[in-house]
Amino acid sequence: MASVEFDDFCFYCPIAPAVHPEAGEVDEAARRWAREMGIGTGTRQERSDYGQMVCRWAPDGDRELLDVATRHAYVTFALDDLLFDSGPICRSPDRVSLLVGRLIRSLVSPEAEPLPSGFARLDRAVAAQRACSAEIRAKCRPDTVRRWIDSMVEWYVGALTVVAHRQMGKVLGFRDYLNLGHMDRAIRYCVVVIQIAEGTVLPNAELETPLVRAVTEAAYLLVTVDSDLYSYKKEALEGTLEMNVVSALMQEGHSAGYAARKAFELRNTVMAVFMQLIRQAREDASAELLRYLGQLEHLVRGNLDWGLRAPRYDVQGNAVPFRVVTAPQPDPLVSSALPEIAWWWELVA
Questions:
Q1: Which label site among 264, 300, 311, 344 has the fewest CB atoms less than 10 Å from its CB?
Q2: Between the CA of residue 13 and those of 172, 218, 231, 267, what are the distances in Å?
Q3: DSSP letter string over 53-119?
Q4: What span, in angstroms and rounded, lies between the C-alpha atoms of 316 and 321?
Q5: Which residues are CB-contacts of 261 (< 8 A; sequence separation ≥ 6)?
Q6: How far apart are CA 184 and CA 35, in angstroms?
Q7: pTM of structure
Q8: How confident is the model over 269-280, as pLDDT tens digits?
Q9: What is d(CA 47, CA 53) in angstroms, rounded to the nearest whole number?
Q10: For the chain, what is the radius of gyration of the CA atoms?
């Protein structure tokens, strides 16, 4: 593992923290359901608190819908651990792709009985996802269901790309990371989780404007990089660094320490432009758009706060050594030279 010391690095984030008041009850109910479905076993799952995570993303969520969203979050993390990050076939893209086909089928038609994979824990996770699909269809709006399916398929594509690179012994470069990192981290899905939990949906006419797309993409990158910085040491120990911001920057010829520092500089600069674009988007915004922008803020801040304490990122029992600060603010007018994201700065007024 490359040596990286993170002790003097801070996440800039001026967004106030928030959490749903019933977070403990939500997490306990989802944990109990996961055990009943046979996917709550294993050290990482048993020590996780995904209900706390969802309740930080969606502090204004409806309790019944929060339960639905959190149950599926437990399924998603179980699949990530069992199929994509580790597990019996995580280095076999041909076998993973067949499972992905069955998973997509479980999203689209939960009534369809899938072929068994030959691995009992994976089959239980597929069964749990089918149960969640039926529940989401019963309790959510059709446009929310469609966005949920699309977000899951996007995650499968990103995760399968990582499995293929793992099998070849390759690590993605930084510019490919900018395109694929949020897909492998299922960040679009995270936004849909909030909309499931809060019973909201932003109309396509507003979602697809350049300004809202830029704000959304900036949130995706922030959550992706933050999660990568939290998980870097764990992934380095496990040998699963095929898609991590630090390892991607190292492909440009940088040392691990320099790459980590550049990753923090990037995310703090993106945080500043994210806040500036949100301020602009709020001008004359509809009630639905205002709600959506607030959801993006809760996602960014909630991910930071949950990750600081999440057992998922522990290394040998030690929590991640980071701090969140509200100042100083980087200059949002210092544009990025990266072609994949430079267009965000062109929208800054």
A1: 311
A2: 28, 13, 19, 10
A3: HHHHH-TT--HHHHHHHHHHHHHHHHHIIIIIISSTTTT-HHHHHHHHHHHHHHHH-TTSPPPP-S-
A4: 13
A5: 9
A6: 26
A7: 0.94
A8: 999 999 999 999
A9: 13
A10: 19
